[in-house]
Amino acid sequence: MTTANIITVARVLMIPIFYVFAIKTGAVYEAVAIAIFIIASITDAIDGHIARKMHQVTNFGKFMDPLADKLLVMTALLIFVGQDIMPAWAAVIILAREFVVTSLRMVAAVDGVVIQASRWGKMKTLIHMLGISFLLLRLHPISLGGTVTLQDLIILAMVLISVCSGINYVRKNVSVIKDGFTHRGS
What would the pLDDT profile of 137-177 be if each residue is shown by its tens digit? Predict the structure, then answer.
């Protein structure tokens, strides 16, 4: 197994540990959950960099790296919904984007087309990782005036970047799925 793949597998193994600490309340649990989440997030950049630099790009890594990222984010979002930190509609939109882009990539892969991460996708990942890290702090709502809180603004930013990134991927790669609109079968 390559170094990059070992790092990816380590990230996957961190997810249940993150979950155990993130569902508990208390300063120690929250600090450990945040630390695990941040370390797991950093390993995302590290394993990709190592894979490219050391020529360790593998099919396993191409499959497992994005899956690990999605499992980590999905775990955090579901915890937030369960703890009333994030409304369910926001988590649904964010997760729907992930399913749409992943499905688009899978369909493209059948035709031998690789859909690379775009700037929008990288920006989405950064905003999600920063937003989730902040929400894991479980601070009392920080009012920005009226009923709007900093937490609300962060969740809105996560939703908006998900939507914009998803639209960008679909718009740039609509040819991958276009035959479904033009095919006139029986």
Answer: 988 888 888 888 999 999 999 999 999 999 999 998 888 87
Q: Are 139 and 173 in contact (CB under 8 A)?
A: no
Contact 18, 37 (CB under 8 A): yes
Q: What are phi and psi of 144, to 5 degrees?
A: -110, 10
Hey, what domains does the chain have and what are their CATH numbers?
3-177 (1.20.120.1760)
pLDDT, tens digit, for every residue of 63-79? Answer: 888 889 899 999 999 99
Q: What angle do CA 115, 46, 16 make, to 5 degrees?
A: 90
- In sign, the C-alpha dihedral spanning 114, 68, 102, 84 is negative
**Dist. CA 178–CA 61, nearest whole Å:** 28
Structure tokens at 36: 């695990």
Of 167, 159, 172, which is closest to residue 100 (Cα–Cα)?
Answer: 167
For residue 112, count other CB atoms closer than 10 A to its CB.
6
Packing angle of the helix pair 59-82, 119-136 (nearest 10 deg): 40
Say which residues have a Cβ less than 8 Å from residue 25's Cβ, sequence separation at least 6. 138
Show the tokens assigned to 87: 């409304």
